[in-house]
Amino acid sequence: MALMITDECINCDVCEPECPNGAISPGEEIYVIDPGLCTECVGHYDEPQCQQVCPVDCIPLDPSRKESRDALMEKYQLITAA
């Protein structure tokens, strides 16, 4: 699954630089995650780094974007091959 940022986001700016795929960017009101680039840090780290640094715990799994670990690894390989 890709991750998502909920409206509890306080725009603290700590998640964006932690994303190894550049999937996090400022949105109109809060940060947003591009599901096409989010691999939940599969291929880079054991756990999603944005979730680790978020002080308000507002980055859950996006239930509308279910992906297996294998699918996330394939996405990682496509992203890093470019």
TrEMBL record:
GO terms for cellular component: cytoplasm. This is 4Fe-4S binding protein. The keyword Nuclease does not apply. SUPFAM superfamilies: 4Fe-4S ferredoxins. Residues 1-29, 31-64 form the 4Fe-4S ferredoxin-type domain. Keywords: 4Fe-4S, Electron transport, Iron, Iron-sulfur, Metal-binding, Repeat, Transport. InterPro entries: 4Fe4S_Fe-S-bd, 4Fe4S_Fe_S_CS, PSI_iron-sulfur_center, YfhL-like. GO terms for molecular function: 4 iron, 4 sulfur cluster binding; metal ion binding. It comes from Halomonas ventosae. The keyword Mitochondrion does not apply. Pfam families: Fer4_7 (PF12838).
